[in-house]
Amino acid sequence: MDSIVSSSTVLIRSYLTPPVRSLSPASSVSVKPLSSVQVTSVAANRHLLSFRSGGRRTRNISNSAIRCGGIKEIGESEFSSTVLESDLPVLVEFVATWCGPCKLIYPAMEALSQEYGEKLTIVKIDHDANPKLIADFKVYGLPHFILFKDGKEVPGSRREGAITKAKLKEYIDSLLNSISVA
């Protein structure tokens, strides 16, 4: 039986009965059997590990910066065409690969991106790869949200820090109502 023990780094224990834990008590640990499963860790090194039964393991490292699924990641070169020239309001989320709160709200942002698909565009901008945008918009904390409508920042739309999906939904709904898009 293959099993994985994970915390801030991924440790692999093969053919151990029972699985061995050698982590500090404060570490978050989950142990489960694997057969033909792919496990993706969104840690800073972006590991993609594939496991096959029989103990054969393959490890590939992906160099992608931030995995966005339904949310498009843009840079300085696309900012004008994607955000400022958009017919829809655009919620810009400034994030970083090393930002814990950014990773925490990732699933909520993905769900909300699908939910607001026709009323709102949500994009991500990587903090480290886009220093000019960070300076231009005075982004000091992450994650940082700014809503744009008709090429301009909506007054009062800035928000900083991780919040729950329900609070994100309230925040987006109130902004859309304030600009009459609801």
TrEMBL record:
Cellular component per GO, a single term: chloroplast stroma
Keyword Ribonucleoprotein: no
The Thioredoxin domain, residue ranges: 52-177
Cellular compartments annotated: Plastid, Chloroplast stroma
TM annotation in the entry: none
Keyword Iron tagged: no
GO molecular function, one term: protein-disulfide reductase activity
Recorded superkingdom: Eukaryota
Keywords for this protein: Chloroplast, Disulfide bond, Electron transport, Plastid, Redox-active center, Transit peptide, Transport
Classification via PANTHER family: GEO12009P1, THIOREDOXIN X, CHLOROPLASTIC
Protein name as it appears in the record: Thioredoxin domain-containing protein
Organism: Capsella rubella
